[in-house]
Amino acid sequence: MQWTKLSEQTVYENRWFRVNLADVELPDGRHLDHFLIRLRPVAVATAVNEANEVLMLWRHRFITDSWGWELAAGVVEDGEDIAFAAAREMEEETGWRPGPLQHLLTVEPSNGLTDARHHLYWSEGATYIGPPEDDFESSRREWIPLKLVPDMIARGEVPAANMAAGLLMLHHLRL
């Protein structure tokens, strides 16, 4: 049962995203107008230290008016290597420079509405280089024991699905 996109046009655009309207044909021949959001890729990075603690950020998201633990993340600039972007974001948001990054997973957090792909990376260890350049991104940055992650997710302390998926994968790989 495959839907077929017959056409797509941009109805709004800025440097962060595009809102498009697609004419979609359903398998039974009916048509529907479907709005979608086109986004640049997102790069996410964290590190796990020798004590099996993962570097996380505690931050407020004004859109949902919620607090939660996250990993450093941001959009990939045009022409930028995704792993490089992940390392850059981690350094800018935490003040820690990751070691060699390993790809953890790629997820599509809301593929019924947006084409956003979130690429998650991790490193074994990181080097503190100083206060984060983008200290406005979070209230604090902490090394959290990886063994606590599943319970934190169950309690809703990691509300972002992409972050929860990455942290659970890290928990699986390391523990």
What does this protein structure show overall?
This protein is α+β, with helices and mostly antiparallel strands. It folds into two domains: 4-39, no CATH class; 42-174, Nucleoside Triphosphate Pyrophosphohydrolase (Alpha-Beta Complex), CATH 3.90.79. Helix content is 19%, strand content 45%. It has helices at residues 82-94, 149-154, 161-174, and strands at 4-13, 17-25, 31-39, 42-48, 53-61, 66-70, 72-75, 96-98, 102-107, 118-124, 126-128, 140-145. Strands 7-4-10-9 form a four-stranded mixed sheet. Its cofactor is Mg(2+).
Keywords:
3 helices; Nucleoside Triphosphate Pyrophosphohydrolase; 175 residues; 2 domains; elongated; 19% helix; alpha+beta
**CATH architectural group of the largest domain:** Alpha-Beta Complex
CATH fold descriptor of the largest domain? Nucleoside Triphosphate Pyrophosphohydrolase
- H-E order: EEEEEEEHEEEEEHH
Low-confidence stretches: none
DSSP, total strands: 12
Give the number of helices: 3
Domain module tally? 2
Overall 3D geometry? Answer: elongated
From the N-terminal CA to the C-terminal CA, the straight-line distance is 40 Å
Major β-sheet strand ordering:
7-4-10-9
